[in-house]
Amino acid sequence: MNPFINRELSWLDFNRRVLAQTAKPETLLLDRLKFLAISASNLDEFYMVRAAYLYDRRNDRVPDDAGLTCAEQLAKVLEGAFSFQQNQIETLNVLLEKLSEKGINILKATDLTKAQNAYMREYFEAEVLPVITPLAIDPGRPFPFLANLSLNLCARMKNDKDDDFYAVIQVPSILPRFVPLPSGKGRCFIPLEELIAYYLPDICSLYTIVSYGFFRITRSADFDPDEDSDSLLEDMKRVLKKRRRGRLIRLELSGGFDEKMKDFLRGMLDIGKRFLIELPGLLDLAALMKLTSAGGFDSLKLPPVVPARSADFPEKSDIFSLIREKDLMLHHPYESFEHVVDFITAAAADPQVLAIKQTLYRVSGKSMIIAALEKAAEAGKQVTVLVELKARFDEENNILWASRLERAGCHVIYGLTGLKTHCKVTLVVRREEDGIRRYLHLSTGNYNDITAKVYTDIGMFTCRPAFGEDASALFNHLTGFSAAPDYGKLIVAPERLKKFFLEKIQNETDNAAKGYSCGISIKVNSLLDSDIVRKLYEASAAGVKIDLLVRGICSLVPGAADISENIRVRSIIGRFLEHSRIFVFQNAGDPLVYIGSSDLMPRNLERRVEVIFPVEDDELRDRIFSALDIMWRDNTGAWELGPDAVYNPVGQSGEPVDSQDILLNMKDKLQEGQT
Fold first, then answer.
1. Architecture of domain 1-99
2. How far apart are CA 101 and CA 572, in angstroms?
3. Considering 331, 332, 422, 579, which one is annotated as catalytic?
4. Which pTM was predicted?
5. 422 belongs to the catalytic site
6. What is the fold of 103-271?
7. Torsion of CA 97, 250, 602, 539, to 10 degrees
8. pLDDT digits over 606-635, tens only?
9. Residues in Cβ contact with 290 at an 8 Å cutoff, skipping those fewer than 6 apart
């Protein structure tokens, strides 16, 4: 039987690699705090989606490829997640001590100076007291509904008859979580919940405070819209409301809770003991991200990245002329996303442009692309936008964008029934002297100018006729009732993509048997599809060398005797989130290079509209080969997965190699037109 690693446990391993960045001596102090906050935010989402998914299917007896039922997976997940949160608290304590040495202090109310106490009292009365709402719990006042991921204070009180009374106060998210205090040296902060707790006797003055503690709840977000609904937009709005009231999947308690208060909360919230996590420290560590922007401590973090202007896009040049000359490529965040914005802005303003068609999955809050599409529609151009309403945790934002685009006169659609549209495609149709020409931008990442500064992605511009014809056919399929076409260049899921990958892997296996040049190099976020994994095992057994860069989930076990001896797997965790997807097949000495939006997961291959596409320009292919080579030489952020299913840091046998730093420092060469 072929070995497999469980999906959920593989994800926990990924988040451990993120947390491990906090222990690297070369990582600056506030950047370590950032990685801790990222690991906490990741874990929140994991509980909301994956732990909730497993709980809902806990009675399903069918095991996964790793041989674990949902109930067994859930037990391992809860155990691993609890251990992980304990490690987070230990990490935080170390970081707080180091931050204090550098002049950044998170204080308790009992630590404050007289001047800080006076300031805290004034701040509490002016800013906090008008906002908070103490909620008594008694027969006439039931336990309140609490928002997902909300931080709360629970107090147990007694009257003169020794009767117990309880109150809950939600810590207002509208106020800064860490309140700055006056300080003669460095920066001092107090957590907002500590400030509220300090004044509990004033807030609940009727009774005597016996004990109090902080708690935080996590709700299930594992809801999908009804695909049979008459209106996907309206049903998505209902899903968002339902999610706000999702079943509790985690209850976190700080210190201070006595047994009576624990029993009270568990009873009120109706949550089992195994979903209760007691932590001796701060809750909601994701909020620490706010502290990483504390002013005056630039030396404790890396400077913000200023993406380079690509030499392929000279200033004041006509972008359509540039694309007609040759295919162009951008590697974000090393090269500026502004070139993509310029492409769409130019199309919106150009009187020769007749139509713009685009897919949008995740968009930033102040998107210049949205503004350009609005202007294009208002100018009378045909603007068609596929807005994916089911982009998890961006649904509300996408609903707002969809409504705004519709008001501007754009044709807005929400994709195909039962499928998420995850591909990243922009098609511009332009009338020119020699007829209609189609200009195309295809990418591995979203049309989001914010994430383009921290996610590594690759985008390509082309006006090759075969690509344009495919893009037109794709949009016609997405917007109308046309059958899925036979594409000439694009490989599209769900109809064709999985079969394509299986065929390409088989081709390398056949080439190995014939003694031809063979090999596979893949870079993805996740590798989970069992058919793909088994096919890679077959290729390895046939002698095909397979290099896999998998940032997150990987169910494949490399280096297993007689199964995967020719496969190596690495994960790079660094300053930027590795997000690009690259697929290279040696093809008997004539390498095939593809990039695109799809990971190797069942959801991407079978339940989404995904597009990967060939890179045919030799110069662009060489740039991709060079980037992959640099990543494989990484020995600072790279982790190697062993046959024991354990990740270990790649050891430094020589000079340290940070692939992201190298690619970032290459921007000067890029500006000079070198690669």
1. Up-down Bundle (1.20)
2. 31
3. 422
4. 0.93
5. yes
6. polyphosphate kinase like (3.30.1840)
7. 50
8. 999 999 999 999 999 999 999 999 999 999
9. 176, 177, 178
